[in-house]
Specification:
The structure is a homodimer of 195-residue chains. The first copy, chain A, has 195 residues and is mostly helical. The first copy, chain A, contains twelve helices and no strands. In chain A, helix 5 runs antiparallel to helix 6. Chain A binds a DNA duplex (18 and 18 nucleotides) through helix 3.
Chain lengths: 195, 195
DNA sequence: GTCTATACGGTGATAGAC
DNA sequence: GTCTATCACCGTATAGAC
């Protein structure tokens, strides 16, 4: 297949960035394993071998997509530790988390929702586990001998944005999804506080 | 690789059933695409070609795993339509759904959580879409011009079991997960009722 | 029903010219 | 940076003997 659009001129960094955009889209819609490097290269308008110039391999694309993740979770953990304990601390922390997660991150959440196993593996291999960070936050918000049911409810509150994205019908406007996630977070954190 | 445990004697139906059990487990832990027919056959203690005697292909295993799904959703839709409208109908329907879903179904939920895209594709190809059934239930519970935010919250209430499974740390006892899901469902349906 | 053996396509990945 | 060409491998799937 020698005929193809004369690849629009791009600098290296631009090509890399666009490849990330395209890969994120394909991985979200078809899944990581079901997406081939060939598909990504085709959508990019370059040959597969050229794609390998920008990324060492398929998994490196994923890692590049995930880099920086975990920073926010760590920041939240730090913030929680700095606060003086109060009855509304859990609620404040949850809303802080959901609100910080909601800016432009919906695309990333869709990707993570579509490839839960992959994200877990890569994150573990990359050293940082978001789940662990979240656990640290929970430990600061709940007594260590707390009812595991209430602990899980609080976890669900923190994960209400991904849950909302997963529950939303295709085509739901982002603002609706975010609003519902916020309301769900408030509701769940309250449920976690009830005995 | 000619040496292998002398396959424990099984009837055809037993082999098929055990293959389903094993495949469900592997698909849940590693994902569908990342699991090869070779792995399933190995875990079963038979040759790959023998596995193809019981199932036409890999996707037929998934379909066999999913068959019967959608029946419960349809039953719920029917039940809702039979009820006389009342202020607590939504709450009753949600709890009915979560409770009915919670018996022995956690394994299936884990599978669906691990392979969201696959399940969507297969279900669509198999004709029945669980999402559509759920939409029908929602239409009966909410006015058609209802706030989309409240509609999504109600959807989240129905999906609180998968959400709880997704949020649970590995090793969480099933009873804890189910209890949290129930509490979350109640909480979310209440949130959906608030303006 | 289970086996051995094999066909076939596509995949991730690399070498090296331009 | 992008290309052509090529690789080894592994996946699904089938044929046919027992």
């Amino acid at each position: 297949m020698p005929d193809r659009q004369p690849a629009t001129r791009r600098t290296g960094a631009q090509t890399r960035a666009e490849a990330q955009r395209i890969a994120l889209e394909l991985f979200s819609n078809q899944g990581y394993e079901a997406t081939s490097m060939q598909q990504v290269a085709d959508a990019l308008g370059i040959r597969k071998a050229s794609l390998y110039y920008h990324f060492r391999g398929k998994d490196e694309i994923v890692r590049s997509l995930l880099e920086g993740r975990g920073d926010e979770a760590r920041a939240l953990a730090r913030w929680v530790h700095e606060q003086t304990p109060s009855p509304t601390l859990a609620r404040d922390a949850v809303l802080r988390w959901v609100d910080s997660s909601s800016r432009e991150k919906l695309r990333g959440i869709r990707f993570m929702n579509a490839n839960p196993l992959l994200v877990g593996t890569v994150a573990r291999r990359a050293g940082v586990d978001v789940g662990d960070e979240l656990a640290a936050v929970l430990d600061a918000l709940l007594p260590h001998d707390a009812d595991p049911r209430r602990r899980l409810l609080l976890r669900m509150a923190f994960m209400s944005l991904p849950a909302a994205v997963a529950a939303a019908e295709p085509g739901t406007p982002d603002e609706v999804t975010v609003a519902a996630a916020r309301a769900a977070a408030e509701s769940l954190v309250a449920a976690a506080a009830r005995p």
